[in-house]
Design goal:
Beta-Lactamase; Rossmann fold; alpha/beta; 2 domains
Amino acid sequence: MAPVVNLSKAQTAHQPRVLVVDDEPEMIELVRDLVGKHADCKVYAASTIEQARRILANGPVEVLVADVNLPDGDGTSLVPTLHEKQPHSSAIVITGSPSVDGAVSAFRGGAIDFVAKPFTGQQIVERVRKAIESQAQLAKRERRIDRLRDAVKRLNESRKLISKKVDLLCNDLVSAYGELSKQLDDVRTQEGFRKFIKNAKDLEQLLCHSMDWLLRQVGYSNVAVFLAADDGAFQLGAYMKYTTAGEAALTDAIKRVLVPMAAKDALVRIKGSELAGQMTPKEMGYFKGQDVLAVNCTYLGESLASLIFFRDERAPYSEGDAALLRQISAVFAVELATIVRDTQEGDTAFDDAPDTTTPDADKKTRKPKKDPADWWKNGEAPPF
């Protein structure tokens, strides 16, 4: 009985392995001597199906040469086991009782050759050599396919990674574009406001121009402008009535409650009903059902003014309105500081100031140019 052989990788690293399964010792010796000598392979032997299964379980076999009639069964039953362990291996079936049915059964089972006894040494050597070559080609093809599969897998992973990075980059670009667009819109808004009020010659014109521009953007509103005094307190600089007259009780409530809120939070959006705990019932009469929007205007960290807007909450202020006030608050503060500084330096030009460059005759006929933003000061209807 042939011993069970453990086919380690070290033993079989460079030569194909051939397993011969036959219950005739002479046949095993014949195949072992001839095949091992002329086919450049390692030959292992078993005399029963059980021994063959143990050898197959211990290591890969490239070629199986099995007799059909074995003491413990049909040798062709080893072919599925061989292919299960090593799918690209080859199997040769030998038999002393050849028949068409037997050959067909062997090929259906996965054998690549069917050899009838008796056969010459040359025949078996050639059959085994062809089986080894076939197995080698199949194995080479499978390795190539495996490499292609691996390459495709890595390419897919790279594609997914690149696609993900491209998506992230596109999202970043979209976000950056959106942010840049928003910043450009902010700049356009600020520059539009600055251009509109830049010709204001004094504080009164600055307030007129500013309210004119803001009402064109935000819509009709009651507007109160509170200016910081030297003592740090705020005083009413201007009030424009839309639906509610600027009575002292109203402006005092705005100064006491809303102006400090704006100074604290920079921007305030609030419903009039939310002021109930901070105003008297009479004061709440002014703000019941009103939507309130207030912004603090600072220059070099100092609060110079507060702009207070309120109107019927059925026409509430939008996020865009709030953003607009936030954007122009700094511009208004800068222009306000400039007007105050020029006034203190005595550099303010008034329409009725003497003109030393104009002849007296021209002075008598010249009429002061009407400022379109003075509609509010003159008690006129809004031009928009």
